[in-house]
Fold this protein.
Amino acid sequence: MLKDLVKSFKENGFVTVPDVFSSSEIEFYREVIKDAIRERKQNDLRTLKDKSEYEQSFIQCQNLWEDYPVIRKLTFDQRLGEIASALLGVSKLRVWHDQALVKEAGGRETDPHHDQPYWPIKETNTITAWIPFCDVSEKNGQMGFYPGSHKVQESQFINIFSGKVDDSELIDIPQIKDIKVDYQDLKLGDVSFHHGLTFHRAKSNDSSEDRMVHTVIFFEDGSKRGDDKFHFSVDRPGIEVGQVIKSDVTPLAYPIKNIPNAPKDKISDDYLGYKMLGLLPKD
Ligand SMILES: O=C(O)CCC(=O)C(=O)O
């Protein structure tokens, strides 16, 4: 079965893997992550309508593996790493970062984009595992992928931070021009994986419940910093352009015998704003 998944991933740039986890494991992690988000977001009292368009697509809490040891078990679960490494066809993976993404009830769509341009990683052996804590369908923030869009090796920065992406921005992008989006139904325990170059989007959440997911971004061990665009995962440990990305901020994720410890150095208070908003760990 893994062979078929690899074939499909190579062709399409994404795959949904059924039953990676049992429902009871997911139900357990759902409660742990809910508590973590509540704690991280305690200073953010805004309602959905007061948030930026980007934040109306999802609430984001990154690097949860650092400050929540139980979540660390999920992020570094070897089942995820094994599938991700087989799909990418590489033997060792590091974690770039993990994050919970909550598309609140009534939250708007996630605009089309691909992820690689957000990350200053030279090589493109990158992949995201997207783990939902509820069944996901067209009513509640379902992810949709542009099949084959990872094959054009050129990346295109689509700035989803600055508000709704205008359709005219997408019109000339060869990766997605004329490609029909493939929306994926997921049930509890399923995980979807998408390549860092695969274009994707998500529908609005028209249900009355928040759509909560945990995602883990992996990259091939030995990859180098590609440019000087700021990113916590490389700027925090001081990795320069051209250097191999190797530090306790992005530890080995697969294959490992022991789950890594949190990074030695805490995030500096230069990023207090991000910490107060719950995006990053505080202590
Ligand atoms: O969960 C979403 O709505 C978007 C997720 C996404 O863009 C990603 O994981 O790369």
